[in-house]
Amino acid sequence: MKKFAADFAFTLDGSAKPVERPLVVTDEAGKILSVSQYSQDELSDAEYHEGILIPGMVNAHCHIELSHLKGAFRQATGMSGFINQINELRESVDEKGRFEAMKAEFENFFRQGVVAVSDISNCNESFPLKKEYRDKVYYRTFVELFGTEKADAEAILEGGQRTADQATAMGLEASVTPHSCYTMSPKLLEITAKRGLESGSISYHSQESQEEEDMIMKGSGALSDNYHSRGLSTPPVTGTTALEYFIDRIAEKEGKVKGRINLVHNVVISQRSIDRAKEALQSPFFTICPLSNIFIHRQLPPIDLMRKNNLKICLGTDSLSSNLILDMVREMECLQENFPGLELGEILGWACSNGAELLGKQDSLGSIEKGKTPGIVLLENAEGFRLNENSKSTRLI
């Protein structure tokens, strides 16, 4: 049995308010046995920490296989410029270097107190490390597919399925998923989403940039020009938002689309697209990656609009191709800095409990409650529950 005490705790057991003088008791495996407020005489056999106890965090969007690209990309290029850099630099580091960069981030996640990751893969390079770390951090792999030409759709899907099957054969949870509206033919988007939803969930880059919206709504803009210059087909011009375009591709004739759908980025999400998502999707989640959005676009999602609509918001880091660091605390600090009205408890709900629900792990992760094994993390240097450059997280169990 282990006992953890601190100044405060955010248990996230239905409340975003902090608990003063928390005492959390676990068994040796980390299962929560009790949560209470300590008296002074109870501290003699407890592990006391100055700071805040929180449950383990869930990184709701990452591309850990791109960790070798740290510091390689120019910032503020927009989506068109970012795609050009991915095409140019993705294999600029040899296999050993790519592996070592990934391993460093796997270890960082563990130390920081990340207990689960919704991770994007385009190949199988991360699978051995996911197997090695699966008793420490849960990784749910989404094998992401691309392809702008209709004739290639079936072959691309089956190739992606073979990659997902490799992960499954290693004891990992994996399935195919569509990337975005602008990187896929309508057919590939439709058949990939259908296949992915058979597993219960998909992850989809949605409304990440105005360039994406312009391509779908008007058939113009920097992203559209980029694709035409490379002789690639572009999606049909619909006059709708990019999220509406996606939903129209997967909508059911009757009833809502079933399954957990992780809509990632949402930088230019609008009331119009939110209304359509609520109408057509049974279980949508809206993941934000603030530092990545600033890195590429110098823009952040409309957080106030998303909160006003009571969206299920999750938090991710994206990759080191579009971020300087993979650290959930830095993402939360960025949010508080840019949206001063955001309270820490609400953001932690996005980073912990909502992420656990996204991955279907809410029965064991996401909150400090009796019977769960969420991990216990110490959050330090959050004065007045405001994060700053000195704030950090450390896994306790």
Short description:
The protein has 397 residues and is an alpha/beta fold. Helix content is 35%, strand content 23%. Helix 4 runs parallel beside helix 5 and helix 8 (242-250) runs parallel beside helix 9 (271-280).
Question: If you had to describe this structure to a student in words, what would you say it looks like?
Answer:
It is a single chain. It is built from 14 helices and 15 strands. It has 397 residues and is α/β, with parallel strands linked by helices. It has 2 domains: 1-56 and 363-397, Urease, subunit C, domain 1 (Roll), CATH 2.30.40; 57-326, TIM Barrel, CATH 3.20.20.140. Strands 1, 2, 3, 4, 5, 14 and 15 form a 7-stranded mixed beta sheet that branches. Strand 8 (138-145), helix 4 and strand 9 (173-178) form a beta-alpha-beta unit. The longest helix is centred in the first third of the chain and has 18 residues, at 95-112.
- CATH domain fold name of the largest domain: TIM Barrel
Number of domains: 2
What is the end-to-end distance?
12 Å
Order of helices and strands: EEEEEEHHEHEHEHEHHHEHEHHEHHHEE
Looking at the structure, what is the overall shape? globular
Portion of residues within helices: 25-40%
Please count the beta strands (DSSP E, at least 2 residues each): 15
CATH architecture of the largest domain: Alpha-Beta Barrel
**Number of continuous helical runs:** 14
Q: What Rg, in angstroms, do the CA atoms define?
A: 21 Å
- What is the makeup of the main sheet? 7 strands, mixed
CATH class of the largest domain: Alpha Beta
Strand percent estimate: 15-25%
Which superfamily, in CATH terms, is the homologous superfamily of the largest domain? Metal-dependent hydrolases
Mean pLDDT over the full residue set? 97
Contiguous low-pLDDT stretches (5 residues minimum) are none
Class based on secondary structure composition and strand pairing: alpha/beta
